[in-house]
Design brief:
By secondary structure, this protein is an alpha/beta fold. The protein has one domain: Rossmann fold, CATH 3.40.50. Helix content is 35%, strand content 23%. It has eight helices and eight strands; from the N terminus they run ααβαβαβαβαβααβββ. It has helices spanning 14-21, 35-56, 82-87, 99-111, 123-128, 148-156, 174-187, 204-213; strands at 70-74, 91-96, 117-120, 133-139, 159-170, 217-227, 232-236, 242-248. The protein has an eight-stranded mixed sheet. α6 (148-156) packs across α8. It is globular and about 40 Å long.
């Protein structure tokens, strides 16, 4: 599928797609514009592994802990999450509306000999095809969509019975504005200015209501916090800025 799509029916914002697609070549540069995603990688990947293994009764200590599980990464960008999860044994499909991102991700995975099904398409296309997955990941996407309830309702349709949905986004707090916009975009310059809009940030309660409205069972949220002393990110109970919400399709 090309980057052309129906802007009236899509749950995504065309300006957001164009912005991230233009930076596709920089996805795998750990010192480039996507440095924050590289830095949060170890913490969030450990979180995914723990949540998925606990839910499906897998051995978290195994090198191939995700064997036998199907997984889709929605808004996969350059594949920074798709690749390590495929290495752990999951059968991974990764989608992004930007053909530039998919091209960058596909080339990188091919060079690393990692089997991933990459598709330049929308979540709507996967839903229309009737596909479902054991694990549905949607990371750092919610804060870029025009309607969170509509988007969550859409991606929830991809969760197979007994499956798991993992969302990550940014809380709508004064602290989040200070850290995720003023700090990250203007002071530290981790992200390009204008990457985030505070009005599109979502509180955990709002996101839980969206998930419940989509007939999934939300679990407790977990925060992701940065320590300037160690220059590392870690999972925390503090959800004032970045947080995860996991939900199951019981």
């Amino acid at each position: 599928m090309s980057e052309k799509y129906n802007q009236q029916t899509s749950t995504l914002d065309p300006d957001e797609i164009a912005s991230f697609g233009a930076m596709a070549d920089e996805w795998w540069d750990p010192t480039g514009k996507f440095r924050p995603l590289h830095k949060i990688g170890p913490a969030r990947l450990a979180f995914f592994r723990q949540e998925i293994c606990a839910h499906f009764g897998k051995d978290e200590r195994s090198d191939h802990a995700l064997n036998g599980l199907s997984l889709i990464d929605i808004g996969c960008g350059g594949g920074l999450v798709a690749e390590p999860l495929a290495k752990q044994g999951a059968t991974v499909t990764a989608i992004d509306p930007s053909t530039n991102n998919i091209k960058a991700a596909s080339i990188h995975a091919e060079q690393a000999n990692i089997p991933i099904t990459y598709k330049a398409c929308l979540a709507e296309d996967i839903v229309e095809a009737g596909e479902t997955y054991d694990v549905v990941l949607c990371l750092e996407v919610v804060e870029h969509v025009p309607s969170v309830p509509d988007f969550v309702a859409l991606v929830s349709k991809l969760v197979a019975p007994g499956g798991l949905l993992i969302l990550s986004t940014i809380n709508r707090t004064t602290k989040a504005y200070a850290f995720a916009i003023l700090g990250a975009e203007y002071v530290l310059k981790w992200l390009p200015k204008g990457t985030h809009q505070w009005s599109r940030f979502v509180t955990p309660q709002e996101l839980k209501e969206c998930v419940s409205g989509a007939k999934l069972t939300p679990r407790e949220t977990s925060g992701l916090v940065y320590s300037p002393f160690s220059d590392q990110w870690k999972i925390s109970a503090d959800c004032d800025v970045n947080y995860f919400l996991t939900a199951s399709n019981n």
